[in-house]
């Protein structure tokens, strides 16, 4: 299964090889220029659509003068400059100022940065580049590449040792309506909130991944179809009971979930297992949505 991410990461490494690193930087983990690094040498760093900004973001969701990062004594703060769509640190609105700690996620419009600082900033930066190769930048769960690698291993293990393996494929119902009604920034929040509901329910030896768009997959080694259905129903209920709050509005979302249990005769490769889960997902949608099938 082709994937251009290793090539992209290699290119980023080559472009930045030899670039002097300071003791703090921003790394773009979601947006138009994933992997871009900005060293924070100046006491004041401006962010916005204005071409004179230190960091220029060419997006309609970004104000001309959106935010600035400033130094005060030995600390860094970010200040929102009355932007239209707001500035967020770890999903909390900046009103109007917030302190920055290493590892903080900064959302400016439809772009997300990670703030890194410390004496070993070079190692932290390249560790972040590696993490980005297997992590979805928006939701911070595993991405499709990581899922493919995980299922390659677990399908081989299930076949060789006759072990159980189940897969849940879930899709947010009427997600296009959310984007059309409230805008893509709200849609991004819905995806992150849904991921935040599911993540704590997935064990260390299992995997939760964003499969693409509004589709997510949970891979469950040592679990049969009955166990998969039990988890799927719990997740469906939890998501339906979790309102997404955005700018004073409460948005209710639901998911449809398709379940597939590994079968040695039917599933010769991981993609066969995913196709079964996808077929059952569409059966759940045809059955009225906000339900589980498989």
What's the topology here?
Blueprint: H1 5-16, E1 24-30, E2 37-39, E3 44-48, E4 55-56, E5 67-72, E6 75-80, E7 87-89, E8 92-93, E9 97-99, E10 105-108, E11 111-117, H2 121-132, H3 144-161, E12 165-172, H4 175-182, H5 184-198, E13 207-212, E14 215-221, H6 225-240, E15 244-246, E16 249-251, E17 255-261, H7 270-286, E18 292-293
Parallel strand pairs: 3-4, 17-18
Antiparallel strand pairs: 1-2, 1-11, 3-5, 5-6, 6-9, 7-8, 7-10, 10-11, 12-14, 12-17, 13-14, 15-16
Structure description:
- With 294 residues, the protein is an alpha+beta fold.
- It contains 7 helices and 18 strands.
- The protein has helices at residues 5-16, 121-132, 144-161, 175-182, 184-198, 225-240, 270-286, and strands at residues 24-30, 37-39, 44-48, 55-56, 67-72, 75-80, 87-89, 92-93, 97-99, 105-108, 111-117, 165-172, 207-212, 215-221, 244-246, 249-251, 255-261, 292-293.
- The protein has a 6-stranded antiparallel β-sheet.
- The longest helix is centred in the middle third of the chain and has 18 residues, at 144-161.
- The radius of gyration is 21 Å and the shape is globular.
């Amino acid at each position: 299964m082709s994937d251009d991410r290793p090539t992209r990461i290699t290119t980023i490494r080559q472009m930045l090889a030899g670039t002097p690193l300071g003791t703090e930087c921003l790394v773009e983990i979601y947006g138009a220029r994933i992997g871009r690094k900005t060293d924070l040498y100046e006491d004041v760093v401006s962010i916005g659509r204005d071409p004179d900004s230190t960091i220029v973001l060419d997006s309609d969701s970004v104000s001309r003068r959106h935010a600035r990062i400033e130094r005060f004594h030995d600390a860094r703060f970010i200040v929102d400059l009355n932007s239209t769509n707001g500035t967020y640190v770890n999903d909390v609105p900046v009103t109007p100022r917030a302190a920055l700690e290493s590892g903080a996620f900064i959302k400016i419009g439809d772009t997300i940065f990670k703030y890194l600082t410390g004496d070993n900033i070079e190692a932290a930066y390249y560790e972040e580049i590696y993490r980005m190769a297997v992590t979805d930048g928006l939701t911070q769960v595993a991405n499709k590449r990581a899922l493919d690698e995980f299922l390659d291993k677990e399908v081989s293990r299930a076949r060789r040792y006759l072990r159980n393996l189940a897969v849940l494929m879930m899709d947010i119902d009427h997600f296009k309506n959310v984007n059309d009604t409230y805008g893509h920034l709200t849609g991004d929040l819905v995806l992150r909130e849904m991921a935040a509901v599911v993540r704590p329910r997935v064990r260390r030896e299992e995997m939760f991944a964003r499969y693409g768009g509004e589709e997510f997959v949970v891979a469950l080694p040592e679990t049969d179809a009955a166990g998969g259905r039990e988890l799927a129903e719990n997740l469906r209920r939890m998501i339906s009971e979790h309102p997404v709050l955005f700018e004073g509005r409460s948005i209710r979302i639901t998911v449809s979930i398709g379940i597939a249990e590994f079968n040695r005769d039917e599933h010769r490769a991981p993609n066969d297992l995913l196709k079964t889960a996808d077929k059952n997902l569409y059966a759940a949608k045809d059955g009225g949505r906000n339900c589980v099938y498989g």
